[in-house]
Amino acid sequence: LERIEQQSAWRFKAATELYRNPRLQDLAGHRAAVLLPHAVLSHGIAELYALGVPLFAPTVRLLLELSLIKDLSVWNPGGPHCGKSSKYGSASMRPPPQHPRSNFSHSPESHRQGDMAFWLQFADWNVWPHISLFDSWEELRLQLDRADLDATHARMLRENLQRKAAAHATLNEVLAQVDAGPRQVPSSYEQGLATYGFESIFVDP
C-alpha cells in the first residue's frame, strides 16, 4: 500500500489507527475501503456494505499468498478469535469427521491451501455484487484510479434496498404461516422441547 501511495494520490490508514470505536457516520465518510480480511465472517464488512462504501478485496489466490486468513472456523488452531481467548478456540478441540454422504471433497475445517481456496470463494466479499477484486497491488492501484466510486456507491445502495425488500417478503411469508390462535408458553425448557417431540437438542458422538 505504501508503494501505491508513492505512485498516486491515494492515502491508506488501518481502521484501528483512525478509530477506537468507529461510529457508522465515521465509516460512511470514507470514499472507499480496501479489505484485508483475517476472518471468513466479518460484521465490519457487512456494515461497510450496508453504508454503500465502495469495497476492494484481494482475490482468493492473493489472500492465500499473503496468509491473511487466521480465523477460518470454530476450530481454530491458528490462535484465538480476534486476539481474544475463547473456549471454542481451544487447541484440544478437533473438527468433526466429514459426513460420509457429503457432496464436497474439500473440508471446511481444513487449513490446507486447496480446501481453503475452495471455501473462500463463498466468503461474502467474493459473492456480494459491486465489490472489486484485485490480484496484485498494481491491479488495486489501477482499479482505484479508474473506479467511478459515486456510481459504485449508488449501485450498492440499490442492492441494499433489494435485499431489504427480499427480507421483508420472506418474513411476511413466514408470519403468514404462523397460527394466529391462542398460544401456550412452556413453563420450562424441557416442556418446550417436549412440545416438539424432543428430549434433547444434543446428539451423542
How does the overall form come out from the CA principal axes?
Answer: extended
Low-confidence segments, given as residue ranges, are 86-90
What percentage of the residues does DSSP assign to strands (E)? under 5%
Number of helical stretches of at least 4 residues:
10
Strand sequence of the main sheet, in spatial order?
1-2-3
Mean pLDDT: 85
Please provide the ordered H/E string of secondary-structure elements: HHHEHEHHHEHHH
Terminal CA distance reads 48 Å
- Major sheet size, sense and barrel closure: 3 strands, parallel
State the share of residues found in helices, binned by percent.
40-55%
Structural category is: mainly alpha
By DSSP, the count of extended strands is 3
Provide the gyration radius in Å.
22 Å
Helices and strands, with pairings:
Elements: H1 2-7, H2 15-18, H3 24-28, E1 33-34, H4 43-50, E2 55-58, H5 60-65, H6 113-120, H7 124-127, E3 132-134, H8 137-146, H9 149-176, H10 189-195
Detailed description of the structure:
With 205 residues, the chain is mainly α. Helices cover 42% and strands 4% of the residues. It is built from ten helices and three strands, in the order H-H-H-E-H-E-H-H-H-E-H-H-H. The chain has helices at 2-7, 15-18, 24-28, 43-50, 60-65, 113-120, 124-127, 137-146, 149-176, 189-195, and strands at 33-34, 55-58, 132-134. A three-stranded parallel β-sheet has the order 1-2-3. It is extended, with a radius of gyration of 22 Å.
